[in-house]
Amino acid sequence: QKAKYNSIMPDNPPFYFLNVYKPEGITSFDVIYRLRKILNIKKIGHSGTLDPMADGVMQIAVGNASRLLEYLDSTKEYKAEIVFGFMSTTLDREGEITKLEKPLFSLEELKNVINLFTGEITQIPPVYSAIKVNGKRLYEIARKNPETNITAPERKVTVYETELIDFKDHKAQIRVKCSKGTYIRTLCDDIAKKLNTRAYLSKLTRTQAGNFYIKDSIKIEQADISKAIDPKSAINLPEIKLNENEYYRAKNGAIIEYNSDLNNETVMLTYMDKLVSIGILSDNKVKIKKFFN
Q1: What residues are labeled active site?
Q2: N or C: less crowded end of the chain, CB within 10 Å?
């Protein structure tokens, strides 16, 4: 499913998404800050931070759409460039880089190792990351005390697809489709370790986030109401269409009767082809969780 642009003016208060391209060199918060000024709207959120060195798709929620961020498809796709034979303190080009011995592995070995990193894998997030340990972010600890030997706890992530796009001069371009929380720079270094060397991430582009694709993204300065994306097409949930009576019942928080085999399933409720509520469907009853209009 692809997120569709809205054909009608969004509501007041605003309730829509934007597919925004973040360029290299700025933070994800910089994007939000600029959008608040351009749109003159304070309530703007996003799903999935991109590091300053990375570019690509950001799922931007405007106004009440911020209440839908938790329901967005969290699958991400990236194109990454890996440089083998070097070690970086941050696992990317922003860190202190040390040259190692020339790596010795073949194209076939690289392909085989990349294929190993699919399915559920275990990662240890990099030291320079926003993960909190004992209430403090790892990168804050690392910057203040570089000698401190501290690591983040292991985490399980899922890599759905990996593909080698190009390889020459010990540089590889790969495509990775993965779950939320996957550290691509850790993945790159883990691939290198399997090849008896080290590596750093030299370029990262997020090409897809849920239903948002980079080919459909807009520049920050292009953001306006005409680029609004209908919340209904931004999330992937079973749809229940309400009649007028059911709409007003939902608005008042009343339970909606609905025959279905689904149990304990999050659903979106629509009225006149517009998303108006999020509910939980169990035992042929929908309990209203959030109402938007």
Answers
A1: 51
A2: N
